[in-house]
Specification:
Layout (H helix, E strand, L loop, with lengths): L4 H5 L1 H19 L1 H4 L1 H4 L2 E4 L5 E4 L14 H11 L8 E5 L2 E5 L2 E2 L4 E5 L3 E5 L8 E2 L15 E2 L3 E4 L2 E7 L2 E4 L3 H8 L11 E4 L2 E11 L6 E4 L2 E11 L16 E11 L5 E3 L4 H7 L3 E12 L4 E5 L7 E21 L7 E22 L17 E22 L6 E13 L1 H6 L3 E4 L1 E9 L29 E4 L5 H4 L5
Parallel strand pairs: 2-3, 3-6, 4-7, 5-10, 6-11, 7-12, 10-13, 11-14, 12-14, 13-15, 14-16, 16-17, 17-19, 18-20, 19-21, 20-21, 21-22, 22-23, 23-24, 23-25, 24-26
Antiparallel strand pairs: 1-27, 8-9
Bound molecules: 2-acetamido-2-deoxy-beta-D-glucopyranose (6 copies).
One 2-acetamido-2-deoxy-beta-D-glucopyranose (NAG) binds next to loops.
Pfam families: Glyco_hydro_28, Pect-lyase_RHGA_epim
InterPro entries: GH28_Enzymes, Glyco_hydro_28, PbH1, Pectin_lyas_fold, Pectin_lyase_fold/virulence, RHGA/B-epi-like_pectate_lyase
GO molecular function, one term: polygalacturonase activity
Length: about 475
């Protein structure tokens, strides 16, 4: 992951590097720590698992060439029997584990060693076709069905995908190329997609080169995405980072994302299909995010938002070289709502826009959308933002028949790029209303200075705030070698 120039020169950055080197040195001279895979390992989640097995117990071969699809499926199927007996963990050892799509199960942890790489197969026959999402009606790339995601979970309870910063490599180049050539019959799969599930944790992993979106929790609740590094070329198509979609109680924290589309995009279904499905994304916490997204947004709301988006709380956001910091995208036909959005504390550098709202995004699933289904956008609160080198401070474009209301922007200092300073048009607002306070440069006249001070940010805790991780030890893991499969 590329560090920003200011990071590289900052004392904190240097100190961090020194500490990493020092701790690596001590880990190296402590023999027990260097052989974690033999001696057991520590994983972090709310409840520890009772049973542990290794992918090699199911015939897995980590040579980067042999397909492990059957090994993963056999492992998951075997370990699913422990759902009501304390749950199970599947250990992926060091190695390169090529695989096609596989499903995971409930009360289950997939744990990657730090030197484990799950490599997505480039054989398209290893990517089964499944129906489109009910709230989208059609695939996003093409009408009709779609490819499965590499790792999927349907209708699960208590599922964890984690590792000591092990890697899942989507090998997406083939998919990006076919997509650009219009050579795909179906919508691309994602790296991780968890559907209709409760208690989902995705943590401590590096995700690279996804064919399309990286992490897609959909129709799920109590979702935590923590300590994830995501990287893909900034020119790769639709490689969004984390996209909570019709999800409730979501906590995304300590993530580092450099990719070809939005770092985080909150969604809830598409036009008439999303309206009919009617499942909002709500109670979403985002904090301590670092993002580079030169052609998209740090945090996007929409454009698919037809089930509604409500109560999003984003805090401590850092971004460089990105197109927009927060972007609300919608259109007539979407219906739904985007309301009670709170952002506090953003530090931004080299941005095209800081704030953008687009009411004419278009992009419809088919021609059956209702032109009178207007979205409601209201209660949008942004505060405590510093941004350097910005082309346009705010482009806020509401819908004439459904203006965006109750916008509040406070304590924001935006340094315009030298070129933009000459143009003297830092804000462009149409069909929006609200107030501002302590914002530089002076906002458009539709957001007059209120004199009220800070915009609100909720102080109550969300239940997902209170989910704690404990250190779980798999010290006796090695016994599974002497007692094959399971202990
Ligand atoms: C995963 O489960 C879904 C739902 O049961 C099924 O449609 C799909 O074929 C399964 N995928 C794989 C790779 O087994
Ligand atoms: C998952 O649950 C949803 C909603 O209850 C249901 O429509 C769907 O058929 C279930 N899918 C599977 C694979 O069990
Ligand atoms: C995980 O690995 C990535 C890629 O090597 C690295 O950039 C990131 O800093 C690592 N994260 C942690 C928490 O060690
Ligand atoms: C300002 O941002 C633009 C891109 O928006 C970039 O090309 C330029 O190098 C940046 N300038 C500085 C001084 O960082
Ligand atoms: C204004 O925002 C800055 C960060 O951008 C923050 O440090 C400061 O405390 C804020 N001021 C108030 C009064 O909240
Ligand atoms: C302001 O935005 C409106 C609506 O998007 C656009 O039509 C207009 O050209 C913009 N004005 C300027 C000066 O950029």
């Amino acid at each position: 992951m590329a560090s920003s120039p200011s990071q590289i020169t900052s004392p904190v950055w240097l100190l961090t590097r020194v500490l990493i080197l020092v701790s690596a040195f001590f880990a190296g001279i402590d023999g027990r720590k260097t052989k974690l895979s033999d001696e057991g390992f520590t994983y972090f989640q709310p409840r520890c698992r009772t049973h542990v097995a290794s992918l090699t117990d199911f015939g897995g071969v980590g040579d980067g060439v042999t397909s492990n699809t059957n090994a993963f499926q056999a492992a998951v199927s075997h370990l699913s029997q422990f759902a009501s007996d304390g749950g199970a963990l599947l250990y992926v050892p060091p190695g390169k584990w090529l695989t096609g799509c596989f499903n995971i199960t409930s009360f289950f942890t997939l744990y990657l060693n730090k030197d484990a790489v799950i490599l997505a197969s480039q054989d398209m026959n290893e990517w089964p076709i499944i129906p489109p999402l009910p709230s989208y009606g059609v695939g996003r790339d093409t009408p009709g069905p779609r490819y499965s995601s590499l790792i999927s979970g349907f209708n699960l309870t208590d599922v964890v995908i984690t590792g000591d910063n092990g890697t899942i490599d989507g090998q997406g180049q083939m998919w990006w190329q076919k997509f650009r050539q219009g050579a795909l019959k179906h919508t691309r799969g994602y790296l991780i997609e968890i559907l209709f599930s409760d208690q989902v944790i995705i943590s401590s992993l590096t995700l690279i080169n996804s064919p399309s979106w990286n992490v897609h929790p959909v129709y799920s609740s109590n979702v935590i995405v923590k300590g994830i590094t995501i990287s893909a070329p900034v020119t790769s198509p639709n490689t969004d980072g984390i996209n909570p979609d019709s999800c409730t109680h979501v906590r995304i924290e300590d993530c580092n994302i450099v990719s070809g589309d939005d770092c985080i995009a909150i969604k809830s279904g598409w036009d008439e299909y999303g309206i009919a499905f009617g499942m909002p994304s709500q109670h979403i916490i985002i904090r301590r995010l670092f993002c580079v997204s030169p052609f998209s947004a740090v945090i996007a709301l929409g454009s698919e938002m037809s089930g509604g988006i409500q109560d999003v709380r984003a805090q401590d956001i850092q971004a460089v070289n990105s197109e927009a910091a927060v972007r609300i995208k919608t259109s007539p036909g979407r219906g739904g709502f985007v309301k009670d959005i709170y952002v506090k504390g953003m530090n931004l550098e080299n941005m095209k826009w800081v704030f953008t709202m687009t009411g004419s995004y278009g992009s419809h699933p088919d021609n059956k959308w209702d032109p009178n289904a207007f979205p409601v956008v209201s209660g949008i609160n942004y505060r405590d933002v510093i941004s350097e080198n910005v082309t346009i401070a705010g482009k806020l474009e509401g819908i004439p028949k459904a203006p965006f209301g109750d916008i509040c922007i406070s304590n924001v200092t935006i340094g315009m790029s030298p070129k933009s300073k000459k143009k003297k048009l830092p804000w462009n607002c149409t069909y929006v209303s609200g107030t501002s306070s302590g914002v530089t440069p002076t906002p458009c006249s539709l957001l007059p200075e209120s004199g009220y001070g800070d915009c609100p940010f909720p102080t109550d805790r969300d239940p997902i705030d209170d989910v704690e991780f404990q250190a779980c030890s798999s010290a006796s893991y090695r016994h599974s070698h002497t007692h094959p499969l399971i202990y």
